Structures are given as structure tokens and as C-alpha cells.
């Protein structure tokens, strides 16, 4: 077996023994097998978008089959281990550590796992059942790396959602949905440039900084108004008005804003 996979397996087994001493091998699926959770072609996505491999898991062998030990391996060799007791219902321990191999070696493992798992039609498989002693060729590595551009848009949106936006308190506190939104030049790397108004504010209201809340763009999209999500990649200078319960259009200054509450 690949040396990094061997170390992953060892870390998980040690975590189980140390933090779940009451759990016997027979209480776990396949006596404590480690599974590579690559559902939905996850290896490339996790590598290029989240800078890590898909999770490695041990499961309880009962009807619920919830996780007992979960391990995340990042590009730089950082490792996070989560241990769950009470048949997987409670996280009792989080451990952070490192493996001795660097990003190049972890990359080769990602290539190997995609080749032996996804490319072979194997999903969420026991790592003991994967042929992981295969040598990684330059062609295999380059093929994997050439797929990175497929994830550029996802990474762009992920970054954007973590940046800040300006939001009227009428949206945040009074329950109005976004009626008017515009994107200006960001003031710093953490600024998305987006501003969101209900559409019933006047100039006096908008000029008072106390009436504006700064929050992550992702919070606006997920918690305040999901209708704006499909427009957030619009460029600087974009302006949209709401024209119905769910839709916006480019503001041509010839229509009234459709006002509504969530």
C-alpha cells in the first residue's frame, strides 16, 4: 500500500484506540476498515477547490453506520482527525497533526487515488481494495493538473462568497428582500464591491453609515435573499433591480423596483 495511505490508516487506528477505547474492532464496519470517500468524482474537486483530499472514514457497524473516525489530509501535509463517540452522534475529540511528506507527494497520492478509484468506477471504497502501489507517471500527473481550469469558476465564487458586502438594515432587520443591488470597485482585497438595498430607502437614509451593515456576501445569499446568488459574478459597474418575486434585470432606469419581503 502507498506509504501515505499506510500512515493515514495508522493515525486513524491510533486515534480510535486512544479516544474510543470502549469501541472494539467488531463494532466497526469491516473491523475498522478505512474508506476513501470520493463520491461524485470528489478527488479533483477537493484538491483544486478545497486544497485537500476527500475524507477518509471509519464507520460504526450498526444500522445507522455513522462515522467513528474521520481524517482530512491537506495539500501541505496538515492532518485533521475527528473522533465520534455515542455511535457517531457526538464529536468527542479533534486532533491536528502533520505527515512528513510534502505537497508533491500528497499530489501524487491524489493522482493515484483518482486513477485507482474514480477512473476505475470505485466509490467510497475500502483503501485495502485499491491497488495503490502503482507508480505515478509524468503523463498521469500532468493529466490531473490539466483539469484544474475546470474548477476556476467554482473557486472564484467560493472566494467571492467570503468577501464582504454592504447591506441596508431594512434588509437585515426589517425583512425586506433585495430590491436594488450594484457592484462598485472593491476598496480592499476582502471587499466584493457589492451593495444591497431594499429599494425603499431615500438618500438621507443611505447616507447614514448606521443604516448599513457589513457582512459576508455568502450570508446575504444564503440567509437574507437567495434570489441574488445567480447575479453575484457580474462585473464592477453592474446594477440590477428586482422586477418580480424571484427575478432581477439590469437597471435601465425606466422601471420601478418591485418591493417585497421575505
What can be said about this structure in brief?
The chain has 262 residues and is of the alpha+beta class.
Any overview of this molecule?
- The chain has 262 residues and is an alpha+beta fold.
- The protein has two domains: 144 residues, no CATH class; 97 residues, no CATH class.
- It contains eight helices and twelve strands.
- The strands form two sheets. Strands 5-4-3-2-1-6 form a six-stranded antiparallel beta sheet, with helices on one face. A six-stranded mixed beta sheet has the order 10-7-9-8-11-12.
- β8 and β9 form a beta hairpin.
- The longest helix is centred in the N-terminal third of the chain and has 17 residues.
- The model has no long low-confidence stretch (mean pLDDT 96).
Q: What is this structure's SSE topology?
A:
Elements: H1 3-19, E1 35-36, H2 42-50, E2 56-59, E3 67-73, E4 78-85, E5 90-98, H3 103-116, E6 125-126, H4 138-145, H5 152-162, E7 164-168, H6 169-172, E8 180-183, E9 191-197, H7 203-207, E10 212-216, H8 217-224, E11 239-242, E12 248-250
Parallel strand pairs: 7-9
Antiparallel strand pairs: 1-2, 1-6, 2-3, 3-4, 4-5, 7-10, 8-9, 8-11, 11-12
Amino acid at each position: 500500500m502507498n506509504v501515505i495511505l499506510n500512515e493515514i490508516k495508522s493515525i486513524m487506528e491510533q486515534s480510535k484506540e486512544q479516544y474510543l477505547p470502549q469501541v472494539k474492532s467488531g463494532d466497526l464496519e469491516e473491523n475498522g476498515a478505512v474508506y476513501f470517500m470520493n463520491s461524485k468524482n470528489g478527488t479533483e474537486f477537493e484538491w483544486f477547490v478545497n486544497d485537500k483530499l476527500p475524507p477518509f472514514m471509519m464507520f460504526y457497524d450498526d444500522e445507522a453506520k455513522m462515522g467513528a473516525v474521520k481524517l482530512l489530509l491537506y495539500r501541505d501535509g496538515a492532518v485533521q482527525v475527528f473522533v465520534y463517540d455515542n455511535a457517531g452522534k457526538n464529536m468527542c475529540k479533534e486532533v491536528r497533526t502533520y505527515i512528513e511528506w510534502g505537497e508533491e507527494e500528497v499530489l501524487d497520492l491524489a493522482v493515484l487515488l483518482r486513477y485507482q478509484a474514480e477512473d476505475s468506477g470505485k466509490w467510497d471504497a475500502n483503501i485495502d481494495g485499491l491497488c495503490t502501489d502503482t507508480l505515478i507517471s509524468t503523463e498521469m500527473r500532468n493529466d490531473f493538473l490539466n483539469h484544474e481550469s475546470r474548477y476556476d469558476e467554482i473557486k472564484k465564487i467560493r472566494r467571492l462568497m467570503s468577501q464582504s458586502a454592504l447591506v441596508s438594515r431594512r434588509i437585515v432587520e426589517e425583512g425586506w428582500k433585495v430590491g436594488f443591488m450594484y457592484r462598485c470597485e472593491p476598496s480592499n482585497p476582502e471587499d466584493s464591491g457589492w451593495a444591497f438595498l431594499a429599494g425603499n430607502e431615500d438618500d438621507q437614509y443611505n447616507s447614514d453609515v448606521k443604516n448599513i451593515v457589513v457582512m459576508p456576501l455568502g450570508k446575504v445569499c444564503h440567509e437574507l435573499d437567495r434570489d441574488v446568488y445567480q447575479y453575484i459574478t457580474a462585473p464592477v459597474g453592474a446594477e440590477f433591480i428586482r422586477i418580480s418575486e424571484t427575478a432581477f434585470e439590469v437597471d435601465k432606469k425606466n422601471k420601478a423596483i418591485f418591493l417585497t419581503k421575505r
